[in-house]
Design a protein that fits this description.
Layout: H1 3-16, H2 20-38, H3 47-64, H4 68-104, H5 121-132, H6 134-156, H7 165-172, H8 174-201, H9 205-218, H10 220-237, H11 239-256, H12 261-298
Helix pairs in contact: 1-10, 1-12, 2-4, 2-12, 4-5, 4-8, 4-12, 5-8, 5-9, 6-7, 6-8, 8-9, 8-12, 9-10, 10-12, 11-12
Length: 313
């Protein structure tokens, strides 16, 4: 794989095709990015408030067993999570397919294969991505048990009461964070390559996953570069959202004060501007991340390598 050529070509096509930006932003939001975007304007409960809210339910479940109310609440949460995975996953798969078709049909990049819409591709993309993240799910289950064990130890017999509990729990089980990040990265790489096999080659789920795994295993450094660099860029462009949090706090103070209308206008406009800029940058970066895999596929990067290319072995 030639990550520099794929990254550069994808960036040029992304900048030349603004129509892909809304698809990139929408895919990011549907797959969980909405939580990061709305975080600046949502008042999160404090640890004390969260404890006061959950403690009675947990104590009742421990000493009296699961009541009908608790079982209903847990069932509702599980159903909502499943509905989000299925419905949101199908929406994200459709958006991903549309963006891949746009990139594939860009006339200024003839190396990209011509794609066409075929029935069942959206469902296959969702199934392929879920199977690619099956190891991530297993790691999350193991990691949850490990973190609960460490958290119980820190709550019952802490060795350090000055450090926040969250940092103590993570520090007590750093292997969980490493395993989750590693499995998520592998799942994203395999899922992205497999999705392009499905969209651009009309491959089946198992064949797409097999080809994607083989491509990533043959050129792991190139695959990681194609994934990590745009992802790092995405983390950097999320900064305006963090700045928007500060602007929102200032806007809240200004809105509660009626003595400075000019200050109210400035803080509200600043918040809106930062939020919009953040959304725009996120959309462009996500469109670029998605286009990288389409460009790599179109150039036969996953299957035809120049053996002299660094990182291709």
């Amino acid at each position: 794989m030639i990550p520099r050529a794929a990254l550069t070509g994808a960036l040029l096509i992304t900048l030349a095709t603004p129509a892909t930006w809304p698809f990139g932003l929408a895919t990011f939001l549907v797959r969980g990015g909405l939580l990061l975007v709305v975080l600046p304007i949502v008042a999160l409960p404090s640890p004390v408030g969260l404890g006061n809210l959950l403690a009675p339910t947990l104590m009742s479940a421990v000493f009296q067993g699961l009541s009908a109310e608790v079982a209903l609440m847990v069932g509702t949460i599980v159903l909502a999570l499943v509905a989000w995975i299925v419905v949101g996953g199908l929406m994200a798969a459709r958006l991903e397919a549309e963006a891949a078709w746009m990139v594939a049909r860009h006339d200024d990049h003839p190396g990209v294969l011509t794609a066409s819409r075929r029935p069942g591709q959206v469902v296959r993309i969702l199934v392929g991505r879920l199977l690619a993240h099956l190891p991530t799910g297993l790691v999350l289950i193991w990691g949850s048990v490990r973190l609960v064990t460490v958290a119980y130890r820190e709550l019952t017999s802490p060795l350090d009461v000055t450090t926040p509990i969250l940092l103590r729990v993570v520090g007590g089980a750093p292997e969980v964070l490493i395993a989750v990040l590693l499995s998520w990265t592998i799942g994203e790489v395999i899922g992205a390559i497999a999705a392009r096999r499905i969209v651009l080659d009309d491959a089946g789920v198992l064949r797409a996953l097999r080809d994607a795994a083989g491509s990533a295993l043959r050129r792991p450094l190139s695959a990681l570069a194609a994934f990590c660099l745009p992802t790092l860029a995405l983390l950097l462009v999320i900064v305006p959202s963090a700045l928007a949090a500060a602007a929102w706090g200032a806007a809240g103070v200004a809105l509660r004060s009626s003595t400075d209308p000019l200050g109210v206008a400035v803080t509200v406009v600043s918040f809106v501007a930062l939020w919009i800029v953040g959304l725009l940058l996120i959309g462009v970066t996500c469109a670029w991340r998605a286009a990288v895999w389409s460009i790599a596929h179109g150039d036969r990067v996953g299957d035809r390598l120049d053996p002299r290319e660094p990182g291709s072995g």
